[in-house]
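This section describes the prediction task in plain terms. A model, or a person checking by hand, is given the sequence of a single protein chain and must write out its three-dimensional structure as a string of C-alpha cells. No templates, partner chains or ligands are provided. The sample shown here is typical of the held-out split.
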Amino acid sequence: MMSCFPTTGSLIPAKKFLGCVPLRVAVHLLFWALLAQCFQCFLANVGGILTHTSNHASGMAHMLTSIETCTGIPLLIAALWGAHTNREPFVRLGLYYLWMRVGIDTLFLVDILVVRDVCERMDAVGKAPQSGAAFTCGIMRSLNCLALAALVVATIYFAYIVWSYCEELQEGGAAAKIASFLAAIDDKLHLQEAGAASKQELTPYAWSSACVSYDASRFKGWNP
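The expected answer:
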C-alpha cells in the first residue's frame, strides 16, 4: 500500500511519541481523543440544527466541519480496531484522516483570513471600541493565525507518529514471517541431520547383527 509519507530511506520513523511514550499507547490515545472530538462536533451540529441556533460560523466552515465529522467517525473506528488487532492497513485509515484534517485546517485558516475577518465580527458585536480598535484587531487576528498554525503543525506531527507506528507494524509483520520461515527451515535441516546421523549409527550395528545371526544359523546343527 502506498504511504502518504516519503519512503523510509528519506524519513526515519519515530521510536516513541515525544521521546518517552510508546507508539502503540500514543496512537491509541490519539485515535480515542480524535474520535471523541468528532462525536462532540457531530452532536453540536445536530443540536444546532434541531434548536435552530447559530454559532456564527460561515457556510464554508460549517461544510468543512460536517465533512470532517462524517468522514472521521468511521475512519477512526476502523483505525482503532486496526491498532487494537495490529492490522496495519486499518491503522493507515487514521493516517489518511489526519492528512485530511491538515487540509481542512488549512482551509479554515483561509476562511478566517480571506472569507471572514475577525475584525468585522468584533465590530458587528460591538467589542472593538474606537480607541485601540486597530491594535485589538491585529492581536485577535494574530492569535487566530497562530492557533491554527500550531494546530496544523501538531496534526502533521501526529500524522508522523501514526505513520511511524504503521511502519513498525509493517516491519514487525514481515520480520515475524521471515523468522517463522527460517525457523521452519532450521527445524527441517535439524531433522534431516538427525535422521542421517541415526542412519549412520544404526547401519554398522544392523550389519554386524546380520552377520552374527547368519553365523549362528550356519553352525546351529553342528556338534563336534
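For orientation: The helical segments are 23-51, 59-85, 88-115, 118-125, 133-218.
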